[in-house]
């Protein structure tokens, strides 16, 4: 092969490489910030990327994981729904939506003053019909997934709640059979210290529920949601045990983070 042909081949290869690089730059979203054409771009280094601040747990209300995947990936009569993850009964974990994207799992909901929770949370569906107990492989897989997500995204380990907590009166998942105490033993979710300490005289349980994160604009619905999470029952009346639980949760919520 002569020198002239070698030079021609090298020039052609360089041209292809440059074209590919230019094409990649043209299609990379990060290359051009999304901004108004009316403003002058004068960037500041003082910002963080928007990210999830909460993890919301659901149960699928389906009889098996295949049915749940069909619903979470399809167009349904009541509108499309999705979640970032599905944890199957056998412990298999399926990821359906990029963590940076907005999955449609929370609906109309609120927690600790946040309202657009689809934009600020990670949704995890658990393969469960709402009646059966959750399986040990499933809970262990969930614990592993929570450890991974919270460490990578910097979400506080106590910022794990149920769909019923963020949508009291509208949603009940995960069911009263979900083992929140087991999750707490692994360090996830907000859970009272044991043994419980009686709340002081005049303690305001509803105010404590609001501090924990519940929307108490409908007190009865909020109390039912609280009972499902912390006592595995559906009563709408607060008692002294609730006050002791909320007293512990309030103290934890008010304690400075490490």
Verbal overview:
The structure is a single chain. By secondary structure, the chain is an alpha/beta fold. The protein is built from nine helices and five strands. It has a five-stranded mixed β-sheet, with helices on both faces. A hairpin with a 5-residue loop joins β2 (85-87) and β3 (93-95). α7 (205-212) crosses α9 (240-254). The chain is globular. Mean pLDDT is 88; it is low at 13-31.
Largest sheet: 5 strands, mixed
Strands in their spatial order, largest beta sheet = 3-2-4-1-5
Shape: globular
Helix content: 25-40%
Quote the distance from N terminus to C terminus: 69 Å
Mean pLDDT comes to 88
Write a brief caption for the model.
The protein is of the alpha/beta class and 258 residues long.
List the helices and strands and how they pair.
Layout: H1 3-27, E1 54-59, H2 65-73, E2 85-87, E3 93-95, H3 117-120, E4 121-126, H4 136-153, E5 160-162, H5 163-166, H6 180-185, H7 205-212, H8 219-230, H9 240-254
Parallel strand pairs: 1-4, 1-5, 2-4
Antiparallel strand pairs: 2-3
Q: Could you name the key traits of this structure?
A:
alpha/beta; 39% helix; 258 residues
